[in-house]
Amino acid sequence: MAADEKTQAVGEQARGKVKKAVGGAVANESMKAEGRAEESKGDLRASKEKAKDAVRPK
């Protein structure tokens, strides 16, 4: 399950970056904001998974 969460985090980060770039290119502030939000969501998910990995016994 952790690999699925990590993959989802990377996907959210990538989609956010794309939306942010496209929003900037077409001067659409709403799309840029959506991109920033989605990228942040992916960052938070990735951080959560890193924390879980650090706590998990090896």
Task: Walk me through what this model shows.
The chain is an all-alpha fold and 58 residues long. The chain has 2 helices and no strands. It has helices at 2-25, 29-55. Helix 1 (2-25) runs antiparallel to helix 2. The protein is elongated, with a radius of gyration of 14 Å. It starts with a helix and ends with a helix. The mean pLDDT is 92.
Question: How much is the radius of gyration in Å?
Answer: 14 Å
Number of continuous helical runs: 2
Return the structural class: mainly alpha
Low confidence ranges: none
Shape: elongated
Could you give the distance between the termini?
17 Å
Query: In oligomeric terms, what are we looking at?
Result: single chain
Total number of beta strands: 0
**How do the SSEs run, as a string of H and E?**
HH
- The helix fraction, in percent, is over 70%
Strand content: under 5%
Largest sheet: none
Average pLDDT across residues?
A: 92
Compose a concise summary of this entry:
This protein has about 60 residues and is mainly α.
Output the keywords.
58 residues, 2 helices
Question: Secondary-structure map with pairings?
Answer:
Blueprint: H1 2-25, H2 29-55
